[in-house]
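User: Last request for today: this protein with NAP, please.
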Amino acid sequence: MNNVLITGAGRGIGLEFARRFADAGAHVHATVRDLARADGLRALGASATIHTCDVTSDAHVGALADLLGDTPIDILINNAGILLGRGETFDTLDIADLEETLRVNTVAPVRVTKALAGNVARSQRKLIVNISSRMGSIGEASGNNYSYRTSKAALNMAMKILSNDLKGRGVTAIVVHPGWVQTDMGGPSASLTVGQSVDGLMKVIDKVRLRDTGSFINHDGSRIPW
Ligand SMILES: NC(=O)c1ccc[n+]([C@@H]2O[C@H](COP(=O)([O-])OP(=O)(O)OC[C@H]3O[C@@H](n4cnc5c(N)ncnc54)[C@H](OP(=O)(O)O)[C@@H]3O)[C@@H](O)[C@H]2O)c1
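Assistant: Here's the final one, the structure of the complex with NAP:
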């Protein structure tokens, strides 16, 4: 049985991943910030272990790593993320939003991956999936959203370097774009339901191999320019 660890799994794309992997027979280690808002995960019964973890906290992530000990993690999904200052322009950009967004979207996935890379390396599947965004593509950059775009571009860079460092241990690390998705973050006008997005991402995850490490992959399997 595969062990899958998903951050920010209490709602949105993370919760849908938890459901899909549980349905597929995996054991899901799901992290939430607030156990009072984990009903969707509790419905998964014995298929899911729910952990409390704010990914910006060294203490929380360290405690999670200690609790897991030598447990192999086949697939680590760095999913937790925020979008602050929606549509912010240079004039409206609040530096505090930029700092907080970098803490959650960039620094935290690196923290979690550093803490759990050994667990991934001792698993069968050895896969790290980072939920990034097309908005982090420098090649396609247009529009505003300084904080979010910058955080995802920096995440992409960190994971590109990390993919080189972990390749020798047989670990594949990719960044993916889930599409514009109907979640609290994406809003109701988004073009994809959570189910449609995760359908595509599950196919990407199924197909990806070590030769693909360091790729930026869309939910439909196509490549996205850096
Ligand atoms: N929706 C889209 O259109 C879209 C497009 C491109 C990329 N993405 C990316 O997809 C990922 C999931 O987004 P979503 O659409 O599912 O958003 P969402 O519904 O807003 O969910 C965000 C999740 O991240 C968690 N989170 C936020 N800050 C955290 C922290 N400090 N520690 C731990 N967990 C934290 C939230 O937990 P709480 O419930 O505790 O707040 C929640 O579970 C994000 O990385 C996002 O950037 C989304």
